[in-house]
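Appendix B, Record 12. Input sequence as logged:
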Amino acid sequence: MADVDVVIVGGGIAGASLAAEVAPFASVVLLEAEDMPGYHATGRSAAFWSETYGGPLIQPLTSASGPYLIEHGFIAPLGSLHIGRAEDAGHAERFLSEFAGSGVALERVDPATIVPGLRAGWTIGIFEPGAAYIDVAGLHQHYLARARRHGTRIVTGARVTAARRVDGDWRIDSSAGTWSATTMVDAAGAWADEIAVMAGVAPLGLAPFRRTMAQLRTDPAAPAAMPHVAHLGGSFYFKPEAGGRLWLSPHDEIPSLPCDAAPEELDIAIAIDRFEGAVDWRVAAVERRWAGLRTFAPDRLPIYGFDPRAPDFFWFAGQGGFGIQTAPAAALLAAGLLLGRARAGAVGSIEPGVYAPARFTR
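Logged structural output:
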């Protein structure tokens, strides 16, 4: 007999949230390669919840996650201002049309009335009042604690070295021991395709991309009441942080191998140049810089479900930069698929087939 019902590979927000939803109904072991869960993408998130981020096929997952995040106190009001110049008018119209009828509140505004020091020419503004901060660390720890309360064993320093089928179950070797399970879940983020290949499962074309962030001290200091600000053309975004600091990204997507991502000076310089082209603030200091990997499937939608070509191999990967903001709905959706249980009302009318791995194997 298998040691447990489910082994989940990966202890970031994907693996942690799924473990929390599955553990009340099945025995679970969560394997994390690093010494602490959430070291990579989860621990380097921009900590932001926006119903428009990721596009109209991600929005239902984000919107469905909102009530859980609000109920448990993991989001705080912020708002998001999408800005552009005359040449971004097409982006603005597409943006508005994509979310027409979705229930997401969007309103045209004069961006100069919201961002002090905005340079001339930035005349297009679309405000998303519902956007919010996310307490990423708090949410991640909440899911790990829920998983533990229901008996999940969380094993760190457990880098998977082999996985194979033995007598109808999965046998998974790691640097911290060997487990057998009825179902193997691949929630390994940037390493998801590598884990699949190790298990003899065909990869799905998941690709990691580096995203750079910097914490700045500016003159004047960033107003605490200012919202998140993003270029409609996708070349930068920034948001205020505690103590008058500012988080800035060049919105970069640099192809990368799965790794412990590190920022490059050129990307920081590009971010500052784009920022100074939008506002007349002086960058007094770059106080911190970091980078993380955002992993996408070829169609940039997440992958939730059993692989149709591999028995009891379950994908929970490809969550790009929206894995945190969609975690509650995504975990409920995936748990229902994995357990074969109806979770009434959990994810509303979301159609799971949109995210099924079978879309790559037909």
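Residues 136-149 form the longest helix (14 residues).
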